[in-house]
């Protein structure tokens, strides 16, 4: 499929009406450089803004997955150590869990090699992974050099500019290198979009978990996700 045809397919997907049975979801990810201050920042005072020293200490990298349902205003953000197939599979499962009543979830994303059925079956096995992939219509890949068509890329760009600023800091200057993992107490959102460490929920609505495979098989997958 050529550039124009792919672009028109994505735009046609965005024109679909808002329906609980066929939600349209955009997904993207972005690597993040983790840093820590080498000197304690000075807090803001009346008439004086907060000050941060320009020097920083690097603590590896992490990754942010961002999923949005534009017409419903639903967002999910998940911090992960990387963007490998297993992490992609966990995010797909979180998206499917959020739409238990959906017959088909129309997914807009780029064609990264990990964005495949294999990532899900490698993580959860053929039964659960196949069930998850079967809930998706994944034929809406953005064209090459046109990732800006993905509304999740726009959302994650705003998140980085408005929430992370120029620095994605770890817990403290004395925090040991975290190897790309979030520091204790600042883990990413859970499957329904709520931060696992408390705070404001990242999703505007919570839904019960989906049942796309037997409860016993899902229970095994739940344990695998919690222990990884």
Give the helix proportion (percent range). 25-40%
Number of domains as seen in the coordinates: 1
**Pattern of helices and strands:** HEEEHEHEHEH
CATH architecture: 2-Layer Sandwich
- What does the main sheet amount to? 6 strands, mixed
Overall number of strands: 6
CATH third-level topology: Nucleotidyltransferase, domain 5
The tally of helices reads: 5
CATH C-level category:
Alpha Beta
What global shape is seen? globular
Q: So what's the oligomer here?
A: single chain
Helices and strands: which structural class?
Answer: alpha/beta
Mean pLDDT: 77
How much of the polypeptide forms β-strand, as a percent range?
Answer: 15-25%
Radius of gyration: 19 Å
Distance linking N and C termini: 38 Å
Notable characteristics:
228 residues; alpha/beta; Nucleotidyltransferase, domain 5; six-stranded mixed β-sheet; 5 helices
Break the fold down into its secondary structure elements and pairings.
Elements: H1 3-14, E1 24-37, E2 56-69, E3 74-80, H2 85-98, E4 105-109, H3 117-134, E5 136-141, H4 151-164, E6 168-169, H5 215-227
Parallel strand pairs: 1-4, 1-6, 4-5
Antiparallel strand pairs: 1-2, 2-3
Helix pairs in contact: 2-3
